[in-house]
Amino acid sequence: MSIDPADLSGVRRGTLQAGERVTLADMKGHRHTLLLAEGAVFHTTKGALAHDDIIGRPEGIVVSTVGGLEFTVFRPLLHEYTVSMPREAAVIYPKDAAQIVLWTDVFPGARVLESGVGSGALSLYLLRAIGPTGTLHSYERRETFARVARGNVEEFLGAPHPGWTITVGDLAETITDEPVDRAILDMLRPWDCIDAVSERLVPGGLLCCYVTTTTQMGRVADQLRHHGGFIEPAITETTVREWHAEGLAIRPGHGTSAHTGFLVISRRMAPGVLAPVKKRRPAPGAYGPDYDGPIPRNVAAEHLEANRSRATDDSELIPPAIRKALRRRGH
After folding, report:
1. How far apart are the first and last CA of the chain?
2. How many other C-beta atoms can be found within 10 angstroms of the C-beta atom of residue 302?
């Protein structure tokens, strides 16, 4: 195995060696991850496969068990490693990580803030994007998660990244004063940290919040509008669908990666400059009496007052079907 410690991309070259991870794949699409060890044996329902049959050979070979089951052998790609590595917390899946790196325009040498390390999956994508000259400051509330993430990252890269630091603690309480070009928040209540992050994010910098529910998504978007120092947020969801192509038999495959989360992305304005607001009025009821979140700056006071006045009549709060039933009973 040959890996350049100065490269810090995690790419390995040369023959496969003991201590490396490899991915075995059969013709049915079943995949297995092995940590190669001299003298070890991989057991299947169709016989065993000795690790020694792989060690010392190049990638791209075909090996067979004693029962004739064939596997291709390759080193795992980054996205394969992140879904098979040890984990203490759920990971951001490759389809979302790819969108984060792309739409936040993470570049070599960037200064990036990350909150919610989990098992280190997104950290690996960010570290590869920023290269050996960039910096990534990650915040994680749980020491166990931070320890697992550090081990996963160092195993894949082959060495500690000199620009990566993990702080164990709450982001709002432990954030440093260093300026950052990009900020990615993967946490339960990212809106609580927008003020703190905005003070460190450089003008033109990008903020991305990864959330899993529509309630979180709406709260983050309204908090950014309420803050005023960010442009109108872009909100996306990514779906990946496999396809089958064989002769004239072309159809969607059986594997589809649907909802995993939403990305709420916005850009920082210059200090003291408020972002323009939408001229159109919000949809009826969008900020009605049941709404208890931050109020965007484009929501006029008279709009809120009108919603509140409509709510003063208790009958307006009763669903129509129930009102109809009450009238039948003479109430």
Report:
1. 82
2. 8
Distance CA 47, CA 269 (A): 62
Which are the contacts of 106, defined by CB distance < 8 A and separation ≥ 6?
Answer: 100, 112, 126, 129, 130, 182
pTM: 0.87
CB 130 within 8 Å of CB 105: no
Interval 164-194: pLDDT, tens: 999 999 999 999 999 999 999 999 999 999 9
Q: What CA–CA distance (Å, rounded) separates 237 from 264?
A: 9
Q: Give phi and psi for 311, each to the nearest 5.
A: -80, -10
Three-state SS for 167?
strand
What distance in Å separates the CA atoms of residue 54 and residue 61, rounded to the nearest whole number?
Answer: 8
Exposed e or buried b for every residue in 250-280, given b needs 16+ CB within 10 A?
eeeeeeeeeebbbbbbbbbbeeeeebeeeee
Quick one: tokens of 199? 């003070």
Please, what's the b/e burial string for 205-225 (b: 16 or more CB within 10 A of its CB; e: otherwise)?
Answer: bbbbbbbeeeebbbbbbbbbb
Which residue, chain included where needed, has tokens 């060495």? 159
pLDDT of residue 284: 82
**Strand segments (E) across the chain:** 21-25, 31-35, 41-44, 47-50, 61-64, 70-74, 111-115, 135-140, 164-168, 180-185, 201-211, 234-236, 240-246, 249-257, 262-267
What DSSP element (H or E) covers 125?
helix 121-130
Cα dihedral across residues 31, 37, 43, 49: positive or negative: positive
| Residue showing tokens 């200064």 | 111
Give me the domains of the chain, ranges plus CATH numbers: 21-76 (3.10.330.20), 80-267 (3.40.50.150), 284-331 (no CATH)
What's the pLDDT tens digit per position in 10-29? 999 999 999 999 999 999 88
DSSP state of 2: B
